[in-house]
Design a protein that fits this description.
One of its GO terms (cellular component) is cytoplasm. This is Glutathione S-transferase. It holds the Pfam family GST_N_3. With about 210 residues, this protein is an alpha+beta fold. The protein folds into 2 domains: about 1-80, Glutaredoxin, CATH 3.40.30.10; about 85-195, Glutathione S-transferase Yfyf (Class Pi), Chain A, domain 2, CATH 1.20.1050. About 50% of the residues lie in helices and about 5% in strands. It has helices at about 10-20, 65-70, 85-110, 120-145, 155-170, 180-190, 195; strands at about 1-5, 25-30, 50-55, 60. Strands 2-1-3-4 form a 4-stranded mixed sheet, covered by helices on one side. α1 links the parallel β1 and β2. α1 crosses α5 (about 155-170) and α3 (about 85-110) packs antiparallel against α4. About 40% of the residues are buried.
């Protein structure tokens, strides 16, 4: 199994964390899609990561699709409940966390543009997405049912990667204010070996994802 992506991508990190937690051996190929000479488009016509190449050569892309594929392999531990309705609710929290990540990535890319070319209205809209998403995740983390429960799920992993990306890119640096449940969740997740091993390198601040 081969995982193609960027060391700084939170969506690649989500899949890497899943593979490590499941104890699944894989080869990681660092191929940032924004870098000259990237071959990502050969596997994903959209030119986006992560890309997973299965043992039989079949290619999967988009982190949610790859996560679903990994769950279908029945490798323990499972990060989605067997009940489809319950799994759907977990996947909705995953989508919420991914939405926060996507908005944060948009903010980061916009910050790299020349100041006179930055769209303030667009920046404000993305920032509001991040803040509203974090508020919703905080409520879920406090309830400890779909998020921050005893058993690690895909919702937890996606949320941890979102929070890690906010820290890494210094997007909304005061995100932790008045969000104690998310702070405790982040501390618990970041202490896991899978998150420690997938921490992005701080020397890669110029990579655009």
């Amino acid at each position: 199994m081969k995982l193609i992506g960027s060391e700084t991508s939170p969506f690649v990190r989500k899949i890497a964390v899943m593979l490590l937690e499941k104890g699944r051996e894989f080869e990681f190929v660092n191929d940032p899609p924004f870098e000259p000479g990237s071959r990502v488009v050969e596997y994903n016509p959209l030119g986006k990561v992560p890309v997973l190449i299965a043992d039989d050569g079949e290619v999967f892309y988009d982190s949610r699709v790859i996560a679903e594929y990994l769950e279908l392999q029945a490798l323990a531990p499972a990060f989605l409940p067997a009940d489809r309705q319950a799994a759907l609710r977990i996947r909705q929290v995953e989508a919420l966390a991914d939405g926060v990540t996507e908005a944060a990535a948009t903010l980061f890319r916009e910050s790299k543009r020349l100041p006179e070319k930055q769209d303030e209205a667009w920046i404000l809209r993305q920032r509001q997405k991040v803040l509203h998403g974090l508020d919703a995740l905080e409520k879920l983390a406090q309830q400890r049912a779909l998020l921050n429960a005893e058993q690690l799920t895909l919702a937890d992993i996606a949320t941890g990667c979102a929070l890690g990306y906010l820290n890494f890119r210094r997007i909304v640096p005061n995100w932790c204010v008045d969000r104690p449940a998310l702070i405790k969740l982040a501390e618990r997740l970041f202490a896991r070996e899978s998150f420690a091993r997938t921490m992005p390198p701080h020397s890669a601040d110029t990579i655009k994802n």
